[in-house]
Amino acid sequence: MSTRQNGWTKDEDLLLAETVIQFIKDGRTQLQAFEEVGKQLTRTSAACGFRWNSAVRKQHESAIKTAKEHRKQLKKGVNIETSVITIQESEQSPIKSGDDFEQILAFIKDIYNKSKIYEEQAGLLEKIKELDEENNRLQNELISTDEAYQAIVELMEKAREMVLSK
After folding, report:
1. End-to-end Cα separation, the chain, in angstroms
2. What is the pLDDT of residues 3-38, one digit of tens each?
3. 83 within 8 A of 43, measured Cβ to Cβ
4. How far apart are CA 38 and CA 23, in angstroms?
5. What angle do CA 9, 13, 16 make, to 5 degrees?
6. Which of 77, 75, 80, 71 is nearest to 119 (CA)?
7. In what residue span(s) does the Myb-like domain sit (predicted)?
8. Distance CA 47, CA 161 (A)
9. How many CB atoms lie within 10 A of CB 88?
10. Contact 95, 109 (CB under 8 A)
């Protein structure tokens, strides 16, 4: 099978970006992503890596950052379900050349607010995890206390029986 050497299309760039970002998010390497995309597009992994580093990566820095944060949360063992802006959504951004400053500022504020929600969700999930661990500890403590109480009641019952049998 021969490899292609023609120019890259927007769809190929999008496939490359989505695959690399998904691999980052899943904790796999970019090299693995380049190999995967190379197979799909009949290009070498080196060509995919070059395209990624020379043209595509710069367009998706916020998605890469989000994917790295997700990977970091996965490594911590926290399962986070979030509504993060996808690549396609970011490419369909309401900002067009010629937009005025107020429109651009409103778009940036919207993205900022979404990132704050993500941070709050991550914090709340961490708090839920801590509270769940505390709940489990308290339930175990309650079980131990109940067992000790039952043992004391049994001892008192035996002592009462001994006193009454004399």
Report:
1. 100
2. 677 889 999 999 999 999 999 998 899 999 999 999
3. no
4. 14
5. 140
6. 80
7. 1-56
8. 88
9. 10
10. no
Q: How far apart are CA 36 and CA 123, in angstroms?
A: 34
Residue position matching structure tokens 């008192």: 156
Q: Which amino acid is at 7?
A: G
Is residue 18 exposed (0-12), middle (13-18) or buried (19+ Cβ within 10 Å)?
Answer: middle
Residue 33 one-letter amino acid? A
- 3-state per-residue secondary structure call for the chain: CCCCCCCCCHHHHHHHHHHHHHHHHHCCCHHHHHHHHHHHHCCCHHHHHHHHHHHHHHHHHHHHHHHHHHHHHHHHCCCCCCCCCCHHHHHCCCCCCCCCHHHHHHHHHHHHHHHHHHHHHHHHHHHHHHHHHHHHHHHHHHHHHHHHHHHHHHHHHHHHHHHHHC
Provide the whole-model pTM.
0.47
